[in-house]
Amino acid sequence: MRAPSLLAAAALLAAGIVGAEVRATDDAGTEIVLARPAQRIVSLAPHLTEQLFAIGAGSRVVATTDFADFPEAAKTLPRVARAHNVDLERIATAQPDLIVVWGSGFAPATLAALRRLGVPVYVDEPSSLDGIAASMLRLGRLTSAAGAAEAAARYRASIEQLRSRYASRAEVSVFYQVWPQPLMTVGGRHVLSDGCAPAAARNVFAQLGPIAPQVSSKRCWRPTRR
């Protein structure tokens, strides 16, 4: 019964995975150092779960959060968090060797509680479209996923295709609604604000500093003069 495990370990050793230290600096400026590439990952954001699958590390995700529904395989993963809340006990039970989390998706106290579990916590907070590709490459380093570079290149190519498609279009102003009550949108530091540009669009609240500011409907819609 032990032969398959020994064979798997031998394969990992041959590939240089077991025992190979990996490191990457997250968006919070913290250097994450792992004694070996992550094998059991808790992903606390739908977009991070999607990225991990995209780079070829999806099989190592042992738990995720509500609304992580892409790709199809992500739907079968255990749920250990939802908007602004995490189940610390279930995360600890999953025995992760890496937790990846969306920085602005949780309060600082929640991030501190995750760190007290004694597991490395990678904070993801891209402020631009290129930051998403950079995140794929950093997650690729922490997992030694062979598909990270290809996934990042494919993503960048898709953005350039959008820029080319809409290059001759007149710019339009857009309002992105995050929440209805209170009315919330995205500021200029949010990645979605930068995401408007390839489609010849401009976030009307790009000048605001907060990532997800509360706004008034009077500031969104201006009556047309007759």
Labels describing this entry:
alpha/beta; disordered N terminus; 6-stranded mixed beta sheet; 226 residues; two-stranded antiparallel ribbon
Percentage of β-strand residues: 15-25%
Describe the main β-sheet briefly: 6 strands, mixed
Strand order of the largest sheet: 6-5-4-3-7-8
Instruction: Describe the global form.
Output: globular
Question: Could you tell me the number of beta strands?
Answer: 10
Question: Can you walk through the features of this model?
Answer:
The chain is an alpha/beta fold. Helices cover 35% and strands 17% of the residues. The protein has eight helices and ten strands. The protein has helices at 3-14, 46-54, 88-93, 108-115, 129-143, 148-166, 191-195, 217-220; strands at 22-25, 31-34, 41-44, 61-65, 79-82, 85-86, 98-102, 121-124, 172-174, 201-203. The protein has a six-stranded mixed sheet, with helices on both faces. Strands 1-2 form a two-stranded antiparallel ribbon. Strands 9-10 form a two-stranded parallel sheet. α5 (129-143) runs antiparallel to α6. The radius of gyration is 20 Å and the shape is globular. Residues 1-17 have low confidence and may be disordered.
Task: Please write out the topology.
Elements: H1 3-14, E1 22-25, E2 31-34, E3 41-44, H2 46-54, E4 61-65, E5 79-82, E6 85-86, H3 88-93, E7 98-102, H4 108-115, E8 121-124, H5 129-143, H6 148-166, E9 172-174, H7 191-195, E10 201-203, H8 217-220
Parallel strand pairs: 3-4, 3-7, 4-5, 7-8, 9-10
Antiparallel strand pairs: 1-2, 5-6
Helix pairs in contact: 5-6
